[in-house]
Amino acid sequence: MELIPVRHEVCILGHSFIRRLAEHVSNSPDDKHLRLNKTYLLDFKSKGGARVRNLPSLFKGRTSFDIVYIQIGEDDIGTCNISTFIRHYQAFTDFLLLGADVKLVIIGELIRRLPKNSVPTFNTTIMKVNNILESLFAEHPKVIFWRHRGFKADFTHVGGDGVHLSTADHVHKLSGMKRFIRSVRNALIYGTKLLRPV
Description:
By secondary structure, the chain is α/β, with parallel strands linked by helices. It has one domain (8-195): SGNH hydrolase (Rossmann fold), CATH 3.40.50.1110. It is 35% helix and 17% strand. It has helices spanning 16-27, 55-58, 82-99, 122-136, 176-195; strands at 8-14, 40-46, 64-71, 101-108, 143-146.
């Protein structure tokens, strides 16, 4: 008897990083489907400039997923206070796990921008918010705060506008988009391992 492969239903949710990610993977043969196998069913939901308070309106339609990956928050920095931001994030993760049919939430680390293209305290606030989110969900059995690799040593991950991810590789370094794809892919693989029955 042939075994039916387990499907992993995933929603990837967020601002313009996710919109651009969806466009890239649909147009790039090398990165098609985030380089995941076909057991992963991916649903991208995004809007450029979206803020954390916009998450409920972005999460429309189908709400039953094994994993929801979220990349949002950078556009909130400098426009709302941190405690309000954290409250919105926590309320939305509670809704996903208690009000929707979601098994696991992965929150992507907020990503730094070129200092000249943002408010002076942007990157230090980003680091502070990341630490708060990581601490807040550290003991939560159904929420993972995911730290991206390859985004901290310098700003080669940033494109020409100083905000979005670069799409061209640098000398000895992958583009910001390719690093982001690798990180999101690894996060989803890690998440599915956690969901496997023991």
